[in-house]
Each structure stands twice: as C-alpha cells, then as structure tokens.
Fold:
Amino acid sequence: MNDTKNSTKKVGRPKKFNRDEALTAAMSVFWKRGFDGASMKNLTDAMGINGPSLYAEFGDKEALYKSAIDCYASNDACAPLVAFETEPNIEDAVRAFFTAAINYASDHESGARGCFLASSVATTAGCVEGVDELLCKAILDTDHRLAFRLQSAIDKGELPPTFPALERARLMFDLRQGFVFRARAGLSADAMMADIDQRVRVVLAE
Amino acid sequence: MNDTKNSTKKVGRPKKFNRDEALTAAMSVFWKRGFDGASMKNLTDAMGINGPSLYAEFGDKEALYKSAIDCYASNDACAPLVAFETEPNIEDAVRAFFTAAINYASDHESGARGCFLASSVATTAGCVEGVDELLCKAILDTDHRLAFRLQSAIDKGELPPTFPALERARLMFDLRQGFVFRARAGLSADAMMADIDQRVRVVLAE
DNA sequence: TGTATTTTGTAACGATCGAAATAATATAAG
DNA sequence: CTTATATTATTTCGATCGTTACAAAATACA
Structure:
C-alpha cells in the first residue's frame, strides 16, 4: 500500500542536512567565488556537510555545480521576473523589474553580488561541459517570459498593437545585465536606481 | 651620456620572449578559463615562457592577472569605443559601437568569447584584492568616454541640446553587457546584429 | 679570454586540490 | 536483542596547485 510513496521514516542513520538548504548554501559559495575558486572545503563548510555525504547526495563537484545552476535558474533568477509579471500596470511592472534586479544584485541575502549566471557561471562557459546550454536556455527562456508579459499588455490595450514585444524583452534583459555587472563591481545601488525612470521610458517608448 | 636611456643591448643572457606578447597570451588564458581556472601550466604553455621567467617578469599569478586586466582595459576593451569615437556621424557611430562590441565578443582572435572584464574578471570581484577598484574604474571611464562623444554630437548640432548624454552613455554600456553575456553563452552574433537598428534608435531617441 | 650578469631549463618544494576508503554511529525491521 | 541499512566522521589517496632552488647557458664588458 505504501510501496510507491516514500515513508516518512527511512531505514538507516538519518541525514543531518536538508538537501535544498545545502544546495542553496553551495550556490552561494559558487556565486561568490566561481566554480574553480570554490574548494570542496569551502563548500562542505558552508553546507554543513561532510565530503562523503556531499558526494553521496550530489555526485562530484561538477554535478553539484549544475544542480546549483538549476536551483538558481528556477528560484532566485526569477525574482525580478515575478515582480514584472505580478505588477498589473505595465509601467509599474517594468519599474518593478529593474528595481528588483538592482536590489537583488546589490543586496542578496547570501552576500553575493551581481547575478550568479552572469557574474560567475558565465566564466565557465566553454570550460565546464553543458554550461553553455544551461546559459542559453536561461537567457532565451527569460526573453520569452518577458515578451509574454509585454504581449499581454498589448492585448489589454496598454501598449499599441505595433509594440515590438520580443525586441523590447531582449532590451530589458540586456539592460539588466548592465546593472548586474555594475553591482558586481561594487557600484552603488542608488546610482543605478536613479537611471530607472529613464529606462522605463526607453523600454515602453512607441 | 647614455646613462638615463636604456641601451639597446643589455648585459646577460637575452630574453626569449616579448613582454607584451606574453602578457596578451596570459590575458587570453585568464579570459577563457577565469583566474582560478587558469593554472600556471596553462599560462606558461600559452605564453611560451618558463615558470621562473614568468615570476621574474610579472611577479606572482595575482600580479600577472592584474597586469592582464590593465592590458585589456587599455587595448581590447577600447575597440568598440574607438569605433564609436572614429565614425563622424553619430548614428553611424552608435551602430559601429554595437557592431564592434558584438563582433569582438563573438569572434575575438584569441578564441575567447564575451568580454574579459564582464565574463571573467567579474567573478573575482570581492575575491582578488583590488579587482573591484579596477572594474569600477573601467566602467566609469567608459561611461564618460561614451558621454564625451555624445556631448560632442550635441555641440555639433547632431543631437538636441537637451539630449541626456551621460544617461544614454550608461544605456549604451549596459546594452553592451547584454550582448557580451549572450556571446559568452554561445548565442549567435547574427541574432544580436538583428537588434542593432532598433537599439541605435533607442539610444538616440529624443 | 676571463668575469660579471641575466635568463634559461629542470627539478623539486610544501600545500591544497577533488575524491574515496574505512570504520564508527544511528536508525528501522525482524 | 540482533541484523540490515544508511549516514556520519576521520583519514588518506594520488594529482596538481603556485612557487622556488639550483645549475647550465648566453650575452656584455674588461
């Protein structure tokens, strides 16, 4: 009766760690130090886990890295996107997108700056197998998700029928990369915030 | 009479390498693999130099890295800037800037993709001492150099007196970061080129 | 021709890397 | 209470890391 579900209790010594929490901790380390800059000691320390437990749960360092990328792409990277999709008015939505992007890149709870994908993972494109594909997918998915929200604003009459949704979606994405790079370098969030109004106008200009 | 100038011939066994060429080779390795991903073996192989010679000429790995950053900032990073400053007509100039940026990020002679500063050095911000400052300086210098060219277009009457030169300079820079990220991920240059006309209009819109 | 000087190539250093072997420990099932 | 199972913690591995010691080689100068 219970053979397909996982029972709440399993045989053997129980794990001391939570998989998601450990993965989030690993992502923070990779984000701050990069793939090669993050040693297994850095990782196990931050994750509160032993070497063998890490290998049993996540495979080797490269597999852990890719899991961390997936974790980021389906959680953190979406925060500005969610802000954009949630705000009903399109102008407010674009503003919320940039505001969230800047805040996120400057003051992430992990202490890391910039964007994990743009500021750390990008370095390993062409070095770690499969990273190129993960990055391309993340970029194109974001383009389309941004475009979808813009298109719905067109459908609702908030934007003219001729509005180039996909082009402006890419524009939003690329502008975000600029903010992200500046934040990684340590430039102030306030200075970037001052540019938001102008950029909202640029994105929505007819 | 010759004591302040360097004589053409020096005492001792002559060097087998050219400093600038070796530094350029080192930059390519750091660009492709990142600071931590580039081993001393990778570096000496690419530079055609021995370990001890490298240390004598450039100091340790970190010093070599910073020299490579300086080398890039005062040479390669300027290519799109120079294109922008050289083209007489402002619209052609903006187009040339983006075209050069995309070409450079997609087909650099070294085989590296993206931008050394944005795609590799950014990862070491906060990890390698002094990198933050180098990055901030490179960003702000570029902002101002772009703004200077826009201002001269205003002065010549190509752009209206109310044109927000510095804001649009930052806009150009940040859009470039998007192209650079896409190129690093492996997206096609042609797809990016197709966006240029629209972005030229965005940058110069009144 | 011999000496001083500089760079070269080789070899080696201790430290740390990612990864795994081993054994102790903590649970569920019989 | 014993057995089977799964995770823990410790230890260790060979490889590679960045760096340096050392001696041979190649030049200018006396």
